[in-house]
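Researcher: Please predict.
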Amino acid sequence: MVVRSEGALERVLGLDAELYERREQWFAREVLLQQKRVLKRLETSARSFFALIEPGSCFAGALFEIALASDRIYMKEGAKIALSQLNGGVLPMGNGLSRLESRFLAKPEQAKALASKLGTYDAQAADRRGARHSGVRRA
């Protein structure tokens, strides 16, 4: 299965910020719980998932979690990803770790640094941050 997205990173980050700020309210809590359930089902699926990050993709925050839950990520030159508060462990995997922590299992300090420094990354910046060694490939 190939996973793609299309849209504006800023809009996804805005929605993530709203959900994170209101995470104690019942509706936001239910949305976050549903996102967590969907991501866990994707991870335990018997199918292979490949995330294709292209220019114009909106893999940011919660949507980037879908890419992280995929078996492999391919990122084209000119594409961008973005991290939000939801990438720091709000939507944990079945093992209790965030997907960033699982991707950087050998370097937990790298996952903490990424989760604490929210922002947008292009393919080169992702490479510099160690993405290539965590299953992300530049296409």
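Model: The radius of gyration is 14 Å.
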